[in-house]
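Final paragraph of the annual report: two paired records, presented back to back.
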Amino acid sequence: MSSLYLLHKPYRMLSQFTDNEGRATLADVMNVPGVYAAGRLDYDSEGLLLLSDDGALIHRIAHPRHKQPKTYWVQLEGQIDENALKALRSGINLKDGPTRPAKARLMAAPALAPREPAIDPKRHPSTCWLELTISEGRNRQVRRMTAHVGFPTLRLIRAAIGPWQLGDLAPGEWRRETLHAPRPAKPAKRSGKPAASRARRHS
């Protein structure tokens, strides 16, 4: 069995436990020894971060080969139009190459705790919310995608990674899940006892 921790990473917090510059880190909200983040979430982004003490599980979640879909709730500047949505769904050309097709749809504003500092309505009088699901994880990809189609990202919350959901976790809250997928077996120590005898001892 493996332990998986689902954390709602707050805004302006690093996805690591230490920092030499005095910025907020995961140690400010979690005191669980031996866990590491499966992937990362930008300092200025919020939402679901997965952590575990099982290196193989972290690899399965974070490695690009496994293509875990990631869903984001994105507050955009302006009112996104159908042409921009179609471009996101089809894939767009960024400086580091074309993106894979994404799932993109307008959504109502999600029920979220206010962000500090909040989006200034005087500077951004018109905004909308987009639900965007991608299956790759380039640096600041969502922000670059929405800017490319003309609608800059103002607030970004990761709502899901594969089957794991942010749910009702408040910023800074976390919960633990137990996964019953077996860990890789360690090589057995050599023994002069027959195999059947060893099996009875460990049964």
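The closing record of the year follows.
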Amino acid sequence: MSIEALPWTPPNTEDVEALPVGTWWDAVSAPTSVADRALELLGRDSGAVIQDDTYGKTYWLIAIGTSTPRSWRLRQVRVLTELADEGTLLGVPPASWRADHQTYWRIPLGPGRYLTDTHHLIRALRQALDDILGPAPDGRQLCYHCQLPTNEPVPVSIEHSGSVASATVYACPTHARDYPRDAIAQTAAMRRALHHGRSR
């Protein structure tokens, strides 16, 4: 089977094109750091995947109408679907684009590599969020940057001291990727991911 025989292929062969979700597929987005771990967990169960290095996002294509934004409720994960009162667009690269572009097919379209089953995807993303971001904080927290409360706080730093108590710095999803990385927090996240990988 050639790529032309697939149910859908990107129409543009020259540049990224903004295409409406809900026409051929819906999509699920996650931060690339979380997507890296989710892809490890999914293995061969992942369909085609678009990665956008400009915004640090990764997108899976899913069947239309199989998910609603409320059905997921996962930190920093978004379901892109056609809404009754507005359209949603996703930047889709040409089918031939790979990692030498900012937006590219991390997992190319191909036979058996089109839509991702949402049951596999949601399980992988839940585990990836725990492995990479740690347990979800209880309740709302203030973002260190905008100083507004967020329902999806991302722990970006843990202030270490000799005392028993240590303060955690939180950010909203918008400002989390701009925070100067804390090497200790990153190491802890990597250790959690490795531990979960060994215990599976």
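Residues 38 and 124 are 5 Å apart (CA to CA). This concludes the annual technical report; the extension proposal builds directly on these records.
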